[in-house]
């Protein structure tokens, strides 16, 4: 298999909707083609994953682990998959695949004008973030990855997340419901946004399904706190027709997720004193986001939930789009009634329901 088959850029003509990119990254390719501001990047395709598993002799073991996990208790699933997870981390990377990843990371450096450009390394399952959303939020993301060596290491970790106990146990629920399963994942390599503010936006009211409103939650820094649920975000509601601000609830924020140069990783750090009591987005930005959400909804023909970020310069970037599933499933009787997505934390806050723990997909927003 050639290196060309392993890589597909978001802005390539063949990328929109192409499941070689998995559901999440194929959706971002669609947004890129439609002219929305999406950070540049490329996908290490599902074909690359399958090639790695075949050439390393791990494909048969992977199939067996997925099969036997159906009948195991959660602690036993972890024990059953541990050797496979370790093998994925240690197996030799096929030369052509490694060369393709290194060459395209170098090309991303060239396109962005940044040496060791920081990227999010993101899992994108075959059915993830599609209308059924059967694997939404189940896989891992690694933020602020720099250098080709680290990209390759985190790419392996994304592959290994196919065999984590949470994913394998959730796979049983998907199978029982008759929904589509993931048999491979793409790994997206995408430039990080150095976000001043970020968050999640629904093109309906998640409390009651009201399609006349756009509702968003926002925080200072990266959107980790919103999707993980460990920062209390500010909340906005905008009328979808008039773009009048219906609700503006500003929550003081003491900490934010951002890159910590000393630790070399994203961490919770103090918000600058002058910002702690202030709105992380102003009214014009909230309206601009609402207009963006409405445009994406019209483009995709259904209600959406959208992760976004705003840079220090005020540039809005689209980080993730997926069909809204809670109200659409209530209307259609969807197959998977409770997708364990990062936005569950957002929905729970709107409903006033506590949510324990963090989400698996720690998106870059």
Compile the SSE list and pairings.
Layout: E1 7-9, H1 22-33, E2 41-44, H2 46-55, H3 59-68, H4 74-90, H5 95-112, E3 119-125, E4 141-145, H6 148-160, H7 165-177, E5 185-191, E6 195-202, E7 213-220, H8 224-228, E8 234-239, E9 245-249, E10 255-260, E11 265-270, H9 283-300, E12 304-311, E13 316-323, H10 326-332, H11 344-351
Antiparallel strand pairs: 1-2, 2-5, 3-4, 3-5, 6-7, 6-12, 7-8, 8-9, 10-11, 12-13
Helix pairs in contact: 3-4, 4-6, 4-7, 5-6
Key features of this structure:
single chain, 365 residues, alpha+beta, six-stranded antiparallel sheet, 11 helices, 36% helix, disordered C terminus
General description of the model:
The two termini are 34 Å apart. The radius of gyration is 20 Å and the shape is globular. Helix 4 packs antiparallel against helix 6 and helix 4 crosses helix 7. The longest helix has 18 residues. The chain is of the alpha+beta class and 365 residues long. The strands form 3 sheets. The protein has a 6-stranded antiparallel beta sheet with strand order 9-8-7-6-12-13. A 5-stranded antiparallel beta sheet has the order 1-2-5-3-4. Strands 10-11 form a two-stranded antiparallel ribbon. It has 11 helices and 13 strands. A hairpin with a 4-residue loop joins strand 12 and strand 13.
Shape: globular
Radius of gyration based on Cα positions: 20 Å
> How would a textbook summarize the main sheet?
6 strands, antiparallel
Q: Report the average pLDDT across residues.
A: 86
The helical percent reads 25-40%
Q: Secondary-structure element sequence?
A: EHEHHHHEEHHEEEHEEEEHEEHH
Unreliable runs: 176-180, 331-341, 353-363
Number of strands: 13
Kindly estimate the percentage of residues that lie in beta strands according to DSSP.
Answer: 15-25%
Amino- and carboxy-terminal Cα gap: 34 Å
- Widest beta sheet: strand line-up: 9-8-7-6-12-13
Structural class: alpha+beta
Number of helices: 11
